[in-house]
Amino acid sequence: MTSTLTPQTYRATLAIGDEATARRISDLLTETLDEEQAAVGAFEGPGGRWDVTFYFAGQPDEAAIRNLVALAAGDGAARSVTFDTVAPRDWVRATLDELVPVHAGRFVVHGQHDRSKVAANKLGIEIEAALAFGTGHHGTTRGCLVLLGHALKAYRPRRVLDLGTGTGVLAIASAKALRTQVLASDIDAPSVTVAAENARLNGVGPLVEVTWGSGFSAPRLREKQPFDLILANILANPLRQMATPMSNHLAGGARVILSGLLSPQAAGVIAAYRARGLVLERHIRIEGWSSLLLCKV
Predict the structure, then answer these.
(1) Backbone angles phi, psi at 46, to 5 degrees
(2) 95 has a pLDDT exceeding 70
(3) Whose CA, among 48, 79, 105, 294, lies 20 to 30 Å from 234?
(4) Taking the CA atoms of the chain, what radius of gyration do you get in angstroms?
(5) Shortest CA distance to 185 belongs to which of 203, 171, 204?
(6) CA distance 193 to 241
(7) Structure confidence at residue 168 as a pLDDT band (50, 70, 90)
């Protein structure tokens, strides 16, 4: 295995209580800092807390960073910023060491190094360790796979869509279980390439068509509708906003599997879809994240 030792990097972190403030900090620093020297990210965690993290190629000017945070969120937020360093590390090797096969009902998501550990009565989904995002270890992906297996026990959809496919795990799982054509889409162009390659590596390349597009505006989605099953592991706000177009792209009796939402956000998503004629069939929670199975009546 080729070594991928990363150099030492510098990091600054702070926790914020609401999304708007986190985005304001992230936007200001993204606009101000040289993109080749720094990266900024804001992520929602359990309990509604938002974590903002900055990574720097060289040692940052701590006073300048605090001043920028103060402009966006006040002196209290500026004082809460902590600075540290991230030691050099072979991230691919570390990922291989840490990623064990994930069992989700009849599906097992694994790396190449664990291919031999998949039982003959299970459907293995192999994801390269170097593409560790979307490997199935997150509670939302596991929840979707469990609900997919549950839905397919009594229902066999013919037209399947994986919306926001990422690495293609859900599209690959659907194609392996159904042995039928699956359409997968993503707004992120690199994800489209990654998902298509993962489908090929998993032996379902001819069954999984991956297309680029934003939500339901992608031409192939309009051409392929109505769908009998849509899987969407995204985020709560986009899922609520998509309730109407998603309902319009469904056949009668179709199933929808939704995830990417924290458990306290589930009620709002369920209500949005109920208003469009979709009723909840099953709701599971894994590690603070909710996954929903709904049926269009």
Answers:
(1) -55, 145
(2) no
(3) 105
(4) 21
(5) 171
(6) 26
(7) very high
* Per-residue CA distances from 116 to 101, 112, 113, 119, 258 (Å): 11, 9, 8, 8, 31
In angstroms, rounded to a whole number, what is the distance separating the alpha carbons of residues 243 and 269? 8
Task: Judge if pTM exceeds 0.90.
Answer: no
Average pLDDT, the chain: 87
The CATH fold of domain 5-91:
Alpha-Beta Plaits (3.30.70)
Locate 146 and state its tokens: 């469990």
Which of 51, 245, 96, 281 shows the shortest CA–CA distance to 163? Answer: 245
Q: How far apart are CA 156 and CA 134, in angstroms?
A: 25
- Domain range annotation of the chain: 5-91, 139-296
Same fold, 5-91 and 139-296: no
Ordered DSSP codes for 133-197: TTSS-SHHHHHHHHHHHHHHTT---SSEEEES-TTSHHHHHHHHHH-S-EEEEES-HHHHHHHHH
Q: Which residues pair with 51 in a beta bridge?
A: 15, 43
Q: Which of 226, 246, 105, 227 is nearest to 176 (CA)?
A: 105
Judged on CB neighbours under 10 Å (0-12, 13-18, 19+), 245 is middle
| Per-residue pLDDT tens digits for 126-166 | 986 544 345 555 788 899 999 999 999 989 999 999 999 98
Residue 6 in tokens = 């990363």
Residue labelled with tokens 């993204």: 30
